[in-house]
Design a protein that fits this description.
InterPro entries: RNase_HII, RNase_HII/HIII, RNase_HII/HIII_dom, RNaseH-like_sf, RNaseH_sf. Its cofactor is Mn(2+); Mg(2+). Pfam families: RNase_HII. The protein is an alpha/beta fold and about 200 residues long. The chain has a single domain, classed as 2-Layer Sandwich (Nucleotidyltransferase, domain 5). Helix content is about 45%, strand content about 15%. It is built from 8 helices and 5 strands; from the N terminus they run H-E-E-H-E-H-H-E-E-H-H-H-H. It has helices spanning about 10-15, 60-75, 85-90, 90-105, 135-160, 165-170, 175-185, 195-200, and strands spanning about 20-25, 35-40, 75-80, 110-115, 125-130. It has a 5-stranded mixed β-sheet with strand order 3-2-1-4-5, with helices on both faces. Strand 1 (about 20-25) and strand 2 (about 35-40) form a beta hairpin. Helix 2 packs across helix 5 (about 135-160) and helix 3 packs across helix 4.
């Protein structure tokens, strides 16, 4: 077996009686701008796309191709939580809420959640898997579709607010992004609850 993700967690859940097993991951917890995005993916065991892995280990081109294959073969839900809600309830709660909504949307009967926290009020039993995007196929799939979806949102927002480099930095605090903040100021898509932004207001 390679060191990449496999379906052993899904197989264990299936042995326990579950049939709609969702892998769940989020992306965009750290950026200064844009939404936090979660995805839940229920893979079809008969047609799992080849090459699933932690989205951070894949090129943008490979991620895009895999995201297309995942959407074509699996049940997928993607949930974006915007900056207003992030600032109101904090980024951790916003990411957990996005994951919960994604699980609800795919009607999972078991969820495998990336990380060490299980969202409150999930509609089904769940297991948290630390570094799950590198261990669990369905979480790897969720990490890919979440990343591709959020990156697309940031490219759109970059067209509305050019200069911040969101089409390449995805809202993270790069040199280009900080330079634009000092030159052009804070946009409606910046997270005011994050210290670097709050300190500029």
């Amino acid at each position: 077996m390679t060191n990449g993700p496999d379906d052993s967690y899904e197989a264990k859940a299936r042995a326990g009686g579950a049939s709609r097993i969702a892998g769940v991951d989020e992306v965009g917890r750290g950026p200064l701008a844009g939404p936090v995005t979660a995805a839940a993916v229920i893979l079809d065991p008969a047609q799992i796309p080849e090459g699933l892995n932690d989205s951070k280990k894949l090129t943008a081109k490979r991620r895009a191709a895999l995201a297309e294959a995942i959407h074509a073969t699996a049940r997928v839900a993607i949930v974006h939580i915007g900056v207003e809600e992030i600032d109101r309830i904090n980024i951790l709660q916003a990411s957990l809420l996005a994951m919960r909504r994604a699980v609800e949307e795919v009607a999972a009967d078991f969820a495998l959640i990336d990380g060490n926290k299980i969202p409150a009020d999930l509609p089904c039993p769940a297991e948290a898997v630390i570094k799950g995007d590198g261990k669990v196929l369905s979480i790897a799939a969720a990490s890919i579709v979440a990343k591709v979806a959020r990156d697309a949102v940031m490219v759109d927002l970059a067209q509305q607010h050019p200069g911040y480099g969101w089409e390449t930095n995805a809202g993270y605090g790069t040199t280009v992004h900080f330079r634009a903040l000092s030159e052009f100021g804070v946009t409606p898509y910046h997270r005011r609850s994050f210290a670097p932004i709050r300190n500029m207001l």
